[in-house]
Amino acid sequence: MLRRIKIIGTGSAIPPRVITNFDLEKMVDTSDEWIKERTGISERHIVDKETATSDLVAESTLIALKAAGLEAKDLGAIIVATASPDTAYPPTACWAQKKLNIPGIPAFDISAACSGFLYGLELASALVESGRYRNILVSGAEVMSRIVNWEDRDTCVIFGDGASSVIVDRSDGESGIISSYLGADGTLGDLLYQPAGGTRMPASQETIDKKLHTVHMRGKEVFKHAVRTMGDAAIRVLKEANITNKDIALFIPHQANLRIVDATCRRAGIPMEQTHTIIHKYGNVPAASIPLTLNDALQKGRIKRGDLLLFAAFGGGFTWGAMVLRW
Ligand code: UT7
Fold it and tell me: Which pLDDT value is given to residue 53?
């Protein structure tokens, strides 16, 4: 059954500083050729010293509000999906709320790594449908540059910083979520995680010396799971929506690696021409990847009202999800 919600505004915040593959060649033993061939990434954006995740949330929110013809005071709730929060607590959503100066409404984070935006959208749609909330902000935001190990070529070459926000309200027309699916498998958590800094391994001199506060990833294994899980999730929501890949105007996948996107598309039978990607210029921006791609596709005129969009995500946890949305 169609869940009548509508994305009424979108906006992205991309830090101006660019780090190219050639810059990385000077930092770790890598090459532009390797990074491009193995990941599809040419460059990524990185924040300056003063900027934290909530700053990008606030900046992208103001743009999304303007697009929706609203002001910050019109928001009903703030949901931030992030794997790189400002602080363990309070939530990054609360720091963004402070910056937007709209105390009072609920504000909280979703920690579901790269799948966080789809988790957030699912939750926002339930809140809107309950009839008790309107104009919910869902932001995917990351400052990965602060939590990657810049000496580890396995990880530092793929991540980037950025945020993108959407505002979700009820729909009176045909716009809405036609099918969606979320999943997780915590037994595989340590294939992609940040070991130290929580209650399992609090900060100590040793954790700092061993750089255990940075992203640890078993890339090859994550890759295989990502392709299988995103591909199968996409097939599942298409089936539940009673449509085929031919009905989809655009596929918007999470982008950790262009080869993952390519293999996922092949598994789900979706041509690459039907897929919008931005990884070449932004890298993997975990929870922000999908909304950044959505906003980019909108700006490039690839989406019009009434189109069927397919989303699929996969990330640490492992977590995953997919959704068919009528724009
Ligand atoms: O956001 C969601 C979660 N994240 C992901 O989904 C990421 C999933 N994983 C990946 O994208 C890929 O596994 C990576 C990009 C991380 C690595 O690519 P790969 O094709 O799986 O490379 P690999 O780990 O199998 O390494 C192949 C070779 C190795 O050398 P040897 O052993 O063949 O001599 C690595 O040491 O490439 C080497 N290598 C590099 N060489 C140059 C690994 N990283 C680099 C590098 N530059 N940055």
Answer: 98
**Cα of 139 from ligand 1 centre, angstroms:** 29
| Contact between residue 116 and residue 315 where contact means Cβ atoms under 8 Å apart | yes
Cα separation, 100 vs 226, in Å, equals: 35
Ligand 1 and 160: CB distance under 6 A: no
* pTM to 2 decimal places: 0.97
How high is the pLDDT of residue 1?
82
Out of 24, 38, 282, mutate this one to test ligand 1's pocket (max ligand atoms within 8 Å of CB): namely 38
**CA-CA distances (angstroms) from residue 5 to 46, 68, 269?**
33, 14, 28
Q: Could you tell me the distance, in angstroms and rounded to a whole number, from the CA of residue 220 to the centre of ligand 1?
A: 7
* Number of domains comprising the chain: 2
Owning domain of residue 243: 177-326
CATH of the domain at 109: 3.40.47.10
Residue 100 Cα to ligand 1 midpoint, Å, equals: 40
Does the C-beta of 307 come closer than 6 Å to ligand 1? Answer: no
Same domain, 160 and 35: yes
10-residue stretch averages of pLDDT, the chain, 327 residues long: 94 98 98 98 98 98 98 98 98 98 98 98 97 98 98 97 98 95 98 97 97 97 98 98 96 98 97 97 98 98 97 98 98
Is 203 found in the same domain as 152?
no
Question: Do residues 255 and 223 make contact, with C-beta atoms less than 8 angstroms apart?
Answer: no
Q: Is 284 a catalytic residue?
A: yes
Nearest partner of 129 among 238, 311, 1, judged by Cα: 1
Is residue 149 annotated as part of the catalytic site, yes or no?
no
